[in-house]
Amino acid sequence: MASQSKSISKYLVWILLGLLIIGLGGFGASGLSGTMRSVGSVGDRDISIDEYARALRQELAQTGQQFGQTLTFEQAQLFGLPQQTLSRLVLQKAIEVEADRLGLSVGDEAVLEQLVKVSAFRGSDGQFSREAYTFALENNRLSEAEFEDGIRQETTRNIVQAAVVTGNVMPSVFTEKMIDFLLETRSFTHVQLNEADLAVPLQEATEAQLQAYYDENIERFTVPESKQLTIASLGLAQLSEKMTVSDEAIAAFYEKQNAYYNQPERRIVERLVFSDAQSADAAAAALENGTSDFDALLEQRGLTAADVSLGAIDQSFLGQGSGAAVFSAEMNTAIGPFSDDLGAAIFRITDVIPAQSTPLEEVADQLRQELALELAAKEVDGVSAQAEDLLAAGATLEDIALETDLVLSALSYHAGVAEGLASDQAFRKAAFEVKSEDFPEIIRLDNGGLAALRLDETQAPRPQPLPEIREDVMKAWRVEALRKALLAQGDDLKSQLEAKTLRIEEIGGILQQETGLNRQERPATTTANVIERAFELAPDAVDVLDDAGQITLILVTEIMPADRQSELAKDITQEITAQLSDGLSQDLFEAYVGQIQARADVSLNQAALNAVHANFQ
Q1: 570 within a domain of the structure (yes/no)
Q2: Shortest CA distance to 24 belongs to which of 62, 63, 51?
Q3: Quick one: which of 408, 409, 413, 439 has its CA closest to 427?
Q4: Tens of pLDDT, residues 156-200
Q5: What range does the domain containing 191 cover?
Q6: Cross-sheet strand order for the sheet of 510-517
Q7: Is there a domain that residue 11 lies in?
Q8: Are 115 and 147 in contact (CB under 8 A)?
Q9: In whole angstroms, how far apart are CA 57 and each of 18, 32, 94?
Q10: Could you tell me if 38 and 120 lie in one domain?
Q11: 144 & 190 share domain
């Protein structure tokens, strides 16, 4: 009954609070064809246009609250909210059809019991008010019959659902198997092999090996389709180099930021305020005679250090008397009481931040650059206007580079290029969208600079010539050759370990031993893949793991079965049983609903759905 009441209260909150805040906003007969009354049906149960519109508006509002903004209908479609809403209503109607088949319903007394619990329907005396009930429904364009039928149907659906999901308990063998899996522990040793451990040093690649590797991995060394761009650009840093900044401007800028460059001593201070001077004096006496300390005083008041912290303050923050005392007191010493704007208070200093002073000479160059950038940011608008006028008059990018501060360059651009200009998102967007027939336009870069670009040619994917990328191919070949060499040596060492002619501690490499480790533990010295593989091996088994090129030998030394009688096992047994049983109930309910929907005749009116969606746009 508790779950049933909870579900009903959700329904009421939806109808009363959701709609009071959101409003129906024009849904209903207006704007929709008079011949359309429903967006679909399940058996003999219609999904009315108003019902779907209300549910969809509620879904948008709830999702918008989660994101902290109002969602547009286009965003709602991207999230699949219309489909989710319609699926939920189809499910509800299918359960109602099943309830009708079973002859289930609830009487008026059950409906009334829920109505009187709704606070929105109560009068000033706290009792159910017919006037408040009627007013709330009228404001939301709901009739009493419609609203009460909604409660009746919701309650009936809960009865059907509860009959399926209540009392399902997964057999204990499943819980036991889960406990065995989760709490089994293993001890194992693993050794990471490195190049220094190779019995035969890795040789440099021959020309034939390099060519063969290049040919076998040609896709790796192929440049994707790229655009050959001519670019005229100007960065703020580039323009700032031409700006003249006087020493007087630098001095004035420094003075404006004096509080940043010259900071007095600050202290991190805690202030415990008392309601009266007598209480403060008593606390100070307890501190003085050692019967209490500052932390104990906080605990007595139910406070924490964070509650009374003033943060980092300078002496001017406090009054004249308390300020001088606080800034002459020793660290971690409670002093006072002193009277301040909040009353009598005891203070404690937890840290001292020494005064800091940075002379103008030390930051003059930095300030000069900042001011030059500010001047460049103002100047760039003029350069932009000049370049735009030239382009409008038919000038080429080459002409613009001659007559303005913009600099001409070329770039072979594709999605993998992300340096220089290509690191700017505004440039990347323009480069992605530019077509050969487009005329160059001035764009403002995200970093404040300017650029204009022209597509000269689109080149098909092409392999990079080996001589041009020889160093990159050599590095890639070496990584792969080292991996294969370490794997081969790992296999050889595995054979020796299995034959008992070698102990794992004698191998060298980076050796780690794990004792009594379970599947969930993640020590810093052992990767998740090594742990996973160790739990797949039999006792005394050895394996060679290629973990993304990191070659590791693993030897399992002991497998310890889970102790089902341990405190940990007892603690998690109930939780696991509940989770498994909940999963079973959910599976049963989904299967049951699937059968209901398969029996019911579901039909949708796409024209009506489109009409409702149009009202949201």
Answers
A1: no
A2: 51
A3: 413
A4: 888 888 888 888 888 889 989 999 999 999 999 999 999 998 989
A5: 185-213+471-560
A6: 510-517, 185-192, 550-560, 542-547
A7: yes
A8: no
A9: 9, 17, 22
A10: yes
A11: no
